[in-house]
From TrEMBL:
Keyword vocabulary terms for this entry: Signal
Database matches in InterPro entries: YHS_dom
NCBIfam families, A to Z: YHS_seleno_dom (NF041384)
Signal peptide: 1-24
Keyword RNA-binding annotated: no
Protein name, per record: YHS domain-containing protein
YHS domain mapped to chain residues: 44-89
Residue ranges that the Swiss-Prot or TrEMBL entry lists as coiled coil: none
Amino acid sequence: MKLSTLFKSISVAGALAVSSLAFAVDNNINVNANDLAIHGYDPVAYFTKGAPTKGSAKYSATHEGAIYYFSSTENRDKFKANPTKFAPQFGGYCAMGIVLNQKLDTDPSAWYIDQGKLYLNLNKTVQKKWMEDVSGNIQTADRTWNGIEYVPAQVLADQ
């Protein structure tokens, strides 16, 4: 798939995804209308279980204005001890979207850990594009994120 075609599909999907999102604190965390991050999935489980795992409100913690759910007390406590180790990169927005200067929602099943960091993507199709050049995409996304971290997703979608 050409990058321009991918960008168009991401833009359309992103516009739909962005319209249903609310944004924590300074618009730098991808959350729903109730400030819930990662659609309620446990960020620690990606590292410990190696799979997306639905969390529970029974085990929750707040980080940077976002609420995270966990599948166990142990995972919640690990997160609370070191949230930056487990929280997804780019505020939980689609990593490939950040490469393309967009803040897009994510599918918790489209994930990847690289050098101890969790990256999420819009969907598995977008994740395939991400996987073509993970290190290059991370470098680009890191640079881009520094310029858009606090820009509301809707502003980026309107550009």
